[in-house]
Amino acid sequence: MSDLPRRRVIVLTCRRRGSASRTLAALAAHPRLEVAKVVLAHGGSPRATRTLRRKLLKMLRIGPLGALNGIRMRAWYEDREAPDLLEECSRLAVPLVEVPWINDDQTRAIFREADAELGVSLGNGYIAPSLFSIPRRGMINLHTEILPELQGAQSVIWAIHQGWRETGFTIHQVAKAIDAGDILHQERYPIEFEPTLQRTVERMLRVARSRFPAAIAMVCADHERLAASSRPQSPGRAFTTPSWWAFRRMVDLNARGHRETRRERLSRGAQSDAATEHLSREEQSDAAIEHLAREAQSDAATEHLSREA
Q1: In the chain, at which end, N or C, are there fewer CB atoms within 10 A of the end residue's CB?
Q2: pLDDT tens digits for 7-33?
């Protein structure tokens, strides 16, 4: 593997703590990869009017309670345990550049200068084609939900809303539409329901965060093969922040999932106890039979000796 050429990658993120700072060490340690640069974008779009209009339309769609609740839920998704990106770049000797916003002329110039074969998007919003097309193999993105069914969805909550018992993450090629590019890699795992929706979200995010750094490094190193066998996405529903009523459904279904999980655990425990008791009885029965057999052998030997005497 060491004889193979190393693939230059460039990382783009909007967060100092999050998926990028968690994944950087795995990328830097991979023998097939070279991290050319990390780009940290600040702020939002300079097109303030368009951004405000989009936010107003979203609030009309989900309602004022949904919007306020969405602000409250942001804390659920903060990765407070992730390392600081600036400190990770310094520790790993990876160049870091800060830019005003994602789709800025400065960002495009940095991407061209980096001459990377592949771009890695971690924790970003919309990326323009004029940016994601600069690396020779385009860009990949991490979406912490299952695609194509849950495009744009926040982790876990919409899977619960749909009545699913599993969640996961998807690594896909970046395309014009958000979360719509060809699927390169996907992992699924059961939802571990906690008593509250917040605790379920936080628990499942810990699962995802323990798994996606290695998966992203693997996809980067093996991108050519994975891209050749990637699966185009069928049309999916685009999700956003839940309305208040959608949120209440999530809370109710999470509580139901937690109750069912507890019942299943209790049932498995009862079955295990019954099996243990059954085995114990069998062992006691076997021991009694062996004891009787030894006594019978002893009696027969005593009788034989008595006759000889």
Answers
A1: C
A2: 999 999 999 999 999 999 999 999 999
Q: Which phi and psi (to 5°) does residue 179 adopt?
A: 60, 30
Edge-to-edge strands, sheet with 118-121: 96-99, 33-41, 7-13, 118-121, 139-143, 166-173, 183-190
| Interior/surface letters 225-250, b for 16+ CB within 10 angstroms, e for the rest | ebbeebeebeebeebebbbbebbebb
Write the single-letter amino acid at 204.
M
Q: Give which of 309, 186, 200, 188 is closest to 254, Cα–Cα.
A: 200
Tell me the sheet residues that pair with 140. 120, 173
Distance of alpha carbon 87 from alpha carbon 297, whole angstroms: 78
Residue 69: predicted pLDDT: 94
**So what's the pLDDT on residue 305?**
45
Please report the pLDDT score of residue 222 as a whole number. 97
Domain map (residue ranges) of the chain: 7-260
CATH 2.60.40.420 fits 7-260, yes or no: no
Q: Which of 150, 253, 244, 123 is nearest to 200 (CA)?
A: 253
Per-residue model confidence (pLDDT) at position 257:
97
Between CA 127 and CA 147 the distance in angstroms is 18
pTM here is 0.84
